[in-house]
Amino acid sequence: MNDILNQQIPKTGLAGLKQNWQQDLQSGFLVFLLALPLCLGIAIASGFPSSAGIITAVIGGILVSRFNGSQLTIMGPAAGLIVVILGAVQTLGEGDAMAGYRYTLAAIVVASLLQIVLGVYRAGQLGALFPASVVHGMLAAIGIIIIAKQSHIMLGVHTEFDSIFSALGQIPHSLMNSTPGIAMIGLSGLFILFFWPLLKHPKLKKIPAPLIVLVTGMGLGQYYGLQHEHIHLFLLDQAYFNSHQHLIEPEFLVDIPDQLASFFYFPDFSKVMTIEFWGAVIAICLVGSLESLLSAVAIDKLDPYQRVSNLDRDLIAVGAGNLLCGFIGGLPMIAEIARSSANVDNGAKTSWANFFHGLVFFLFVLLFPHFIHSIPLATLAALLVYTGYRLAAPKHFKEVFDIGIDQLCLFVITIIGVLATDLLIGVALGIASKLVIELLRGVWLNNIFKIYFKISRPTAHIISIELQGSALFSNFMPLRKAVNKLEPGKTIVFNFSNGYMIDYSVMQFIDDFSRDYKAQGGKILKIGRPLEKFSDHELAARLMTADDRK
Prior knowledge:
- By secondary structure, the protein is an alpha/beta fold.
- The chain contains 23 helices and 11 strands.
- The protein folds into 2 domains: 23-128 and 182-378, no CATH class; 446-543, Transcription Regulator spoIIAA (2-Layer Sandwich), CATH 3.30.750.24.
- Strands 5, 6, 7, 8, 9, 10 and 11 form a 7-stranded mixed sheet that branches. A two-stranded antiparallel sheet has the order 1-4.
């Protein structure tokens, strides 16, 4: 069976291009249709020029796809970095948007060098160092922040707010005082995004919803005359509120340079010695690397050929791409989950699909820049509000709660921490809370960051892994490395009988490893009945034995 699977695995390099160019070209083009409005919207929401999103998509596709460590991921700007980049622009620029942009480009350059170093020193397992619920809480908080800020743009309202909580509280006010034409464009786009996936017609469902939103928004933009400044008096206003006149201006459309040379800006390193600069560097490196690695792992699970990404090589490739982006005016890139999932669904075979996605992007911008200028900002804001909702949807709260009440607490603490302070402090609060929970459950202090396990081979075909003490997110990296080095085709026995605490992150790793190992012809057995599980979830944290300290 494995021989048959190996024969079916698509070739790579030029041989892969020759073998699969039709499927990869088709998928690359379809992903481009999905990515175009998202890349523009992410750039504008990040406080960068719209051209920055295009630069990143082109570099991520044409260049990074040629030497990254994964086959089906799409590299480009991501909504998860909006909060980090916009925060850097505002903090470093101190009110000067262009200066903040160029200072942030410098921070991207330095952060990309750190990413390359992490990849060289095999830090591709960085995601394992963070509790899953804290990571999900961080992403949910980012989603809430995106909703809070982009909802006002979607409604055509210019508003100032002191905090994210204030921005959320002002959404009803903006809804009641929206610019009707702009709100119609934004809300119709949001409606399409929510209800298009519910269609039963198979051919219609194949059309990307963001493409429908883009076309609809541009059509309504033409109808409301967004290309020129004028006063628009709506029928409802004429009948009931004659005093309400709404100014429609070209500033409601995407602004993009007509000349390709005007796309490029260069970094300013004059703030490199400031604390704020290094705070931006750490945030960009941490969030960008973490999100990219998690996305690559998630897409590996969707790969029909069961290929496994080289995460260290992926991190080096992303860092190299970001280095170039930072030097010429682009956003940082990651392996983006939504576009990568669409790439898999579209039947892509190799990384050439990512290449074609970048190539089509470049040709389109080169040939049709005026098309981009006719896209309403409200359309892009609707796409981002929907993206934010997907990051913070109620179902995520339920999924985390199903794993255990402790995981929900970490999830909520991280969200509140990020919203009330900033991203790094919020994540640190989540991690600190996790460590406190483990100590309260009886984990020994000297076991928090050090794991104890033994690997033995009772027979030629059996490998026994005996856990002693606790296996936690904070200490299981040595176990992870040792297990990943085991040869395939054996029977691996995880013996938990002498363990104390096994947390969800470790159970999740063992579950993922078991699935991959079985796919390669091996077997996995687990020994040990838990004394207590903290929920009914299959991978919930568990106590294996009583605390035997005397």
